[in-house]
Amino acid sequence: MSLYDQGLDRTAANYMALSPVSFVERSAEVFADLPAVIHGARRCTWARLRERSARLAAALRALGVGRGSTVSVMLPNTPEMIEAHYAVPALNAVLNTLNTRLDAPLLAWQMNHCEAAVLITDREFAPVIGPALRLLREQHGRTPIVIDVADSEYTGDGERLGDHEYEALLAAHAPLARLEGPADEWDAIAVSYTSGTTGDPKGVVTHHRGAYLNAVCNAVTWTMPNFPVYLWTLPLFHCNGWCFPWTVAMLGGTHVCLRRVEAPAILAAMREHGVDHYCAAPIVHNLLVNAPAAMRAGITQKVRGMVAGAAPPAAMIEGMAQIGFDLTHVYGLTEVYGPAAVAVRRAGWAQQSVSEQARLNGRQGVRYPLQEGMTVLDPETLAETPADGQTLGEIMFRGNIVMKGYLKNPSATAQAFAGGWFHTGDLAVMEPDRYVKIKDRSKDIIISGGENISSLEVEDALYRHPAVLACAVVARPDPKWGESPVAYVETKAGAKVTAAELVAHCKGLLAGYKVPKDIRFEPIPKTSTGKIQKFQLRERAKSASAIE
């Protein structure tokens, strides 16, 4: 035993498990009178938000929820969703936020897989949750307790499915004296299912320590001030809002809820409530870039956006700069709590051209301050690739902001953590300044005549055409070259462009073998967070090739 181990034990006075639940208690204590939630005509202070969360925790405890129990929620970005994020972990239970765009069979499968004891659901989703509950009962023999939410901003008449109504349940229970969190910071805080862009969702289990540290990283990375006004354009079900429910609580900020993510509603909320921070996938930022200038009138405060979810095209980054929005590019996955890397902007970048600034800011960047490792490794040897901007490898993470593993899937967990690193599946290069730049997902590299083509590079070229709103490039079978790129394109409202014009445009920006010869103007399948589902497009391209 060391000298420094003698009589220097952990006690209640000098050690507590890290949990973001503590941020809620602090803001309720020191910022009790400040605004915490805005939702339509509803307003809530931090004291009131903490009280409501503590009432929900008490109600859930009375229903038998405790350590290791799973509470599923099917909610849009409403106050009840925020309260669930604060109440469920306070019981040492596990929060499962369901994707509101999934179908009934997949919802039933997920709730069975995570053994949901309670479901909190907005009445708008009754048409899909009703069948999901029937499947859950009939196929899996599971019947969770259902709590219905009647949101003040929902104008429909969705049926009640459960025995409990949310507001009545809260009113029937006195709030817990304290939102305490776990005794062990390694305890699970949430199980989040991967979005299915590969067609294979897994239950990603995260812990209190990681959520706490990533919440801090969000604020540090974004240099967020105290009392930010944060707009919920990012679905709260996605990676639990990238840990921003906790970041806003830590800073005593205001959650501005948004039930529908549409450009008019986003810009109106920014104008009316003085929103200064928001997060979104590239497609949502594109909505704002392409909105009529009149729609942005009256927004005089500095608005800071954070982009992730897909590699942002340089044209979108340039567009955000042109409308005066400050953009921070982060990178991550569900398995690392959302963002865990950032393209930290250096002072010298401001001296570069707008296009070069966009290129620099479009990189995936460097690890978050409290993430212990992020690099590019050869996936076979685990040797680090040289920082030459050319040698392709796989992005890997290690540290406290990495999941516990995949629920009930030890083989997938072992594979993901092989060699002591979390394998992302994203192919990238390390540039000379040690900033990481994604070249593609491993499944999305197109090999044409023995040459590697990055679908992201082709997409970036297409996005530079003023008529292109969204695009995706995948491989199609080619009898001569093995594979060749095919581009799926959605155009902006009122814009007209031909395939020949886009091909000519790409020829001015790309090597000839990278230019897509096949351009299709078709709807592009996306997840609810704006991620393009390339696995569907790959199947579409193969099917189209088979009948041509």
Which outline best applies? globular
What is the count of helical runs? 17
The largest sheet, given as strand count, sense and whether it forms a barrel, is:
9 strands, mixed
Structural class determined from secondary elements: alpha/beta
Question: What is the count of β-strands?
Answer: 26
| Rg over CA atoms | 24 Å
Q: In percent, how much strand structure appears in the residues?
A: 15-25%
Distance between the termini: 75 Å
Q: Poorly predicted ranges (pLDDT <50, ≥5 residues)?
A: none
Specify the helix fraction band: 25-40%
Instruction: Give, in spatial order, the strands making up the sheet with the most strands.
Output: 2-1-11-10-12-13-14-15-16
- What is the average of the pLDDT values? 91
Offer a concise description of the structure.
This protein is of the alpha/beta class and 548 residues long.
Throw out a few tags for this protein.
five-stranded parallel beta sheet, 548 residues, alpha/beta, single chain, 31% helix, 17 helices, 26 strands, nine-stranded mixed beta sheet
Write up what this structure looks like.
The chain has 548 residues and is an alpha/beta fold. 31% of the residues lie in helices and 24% in strands. It contains 17 helices and 26 strands. The strands form six sheets. Strands 2-1-11-10-12-13-14-15-16 form a nine-stranded mixed sheet, sandwiched between helices. Strands 4-3-5-6-7 form a five-stranded parallel sheet, sandwiched between helices. Strands 17-18-20-21 form a four-stranded antiparallel sheet. Helix 7 crosses helix 9 and helix 12 packs across helix 13. The protein starts with 20 loop residues before the first helix and ends with a helix. The model has no long low-confidence stretch (mean pLDDT 91).
